[in-house]
Amino acid sequence: MARSKVITVEMAEQQIQNWELIRDILLRIAETDEDDGNTRIIKKYLKYGSVATVATEMNNEGYRTINEFTGQPRRLSSTNISEVIRDGEIADKEMQALARMILDDHTEFINRSFN
């Protein structure tokens, strides 16, 4: 027998506030010339929802990272993008937190499904 879940008006209002915050953050993802690399990565991640797509986009724009062993520039990987989302800092802390939450949920889903 299924259990019913009670939803109060207060719970609904809190959910509405959460979704309004997410909407407001997503309205700010338009890229500008002033955005640094970390900000561009996080905005692209919120736009595409895929670290692989962000890596491709950033590589197409000419962004590179430095190979820690050779000191030479190399193309960005999805791992590099994940590291920036997890550890990089940007001025918009709400946007940063949303990207991290989405990335963590994706990682948790993959770990539950395939590990």
End-to-end Cα distance: 31 Å
Major β-sheet profile: 2 strands, antiparallel
Please bin the fraction of helical residues.
Answer: 55-70%
Strand content: under 5%
Describe the structure.
The protein has 115 residues and is mainly alpha-helical. Helices cover 63% and strands 3% of the residues. The chain has a two-stranded antiparallel sheet with strand order 1-2. Strand 1 (65-66) and strand 2 (73-74) form a beta hairpin. Helix 3 packs across helix 4. It is elongated and about 60 Å long.
Entry keywords:
mainly alpha, 5 helices, 115 residues
Compact description:
The chain has 115 residues and is mainly alpha-helical.
SSE topology sketch:
Elements: H1 9-26, H2 37-48, H3 51-60, E1 65-66, E2 73-74, H4 78-87, H5 93-114
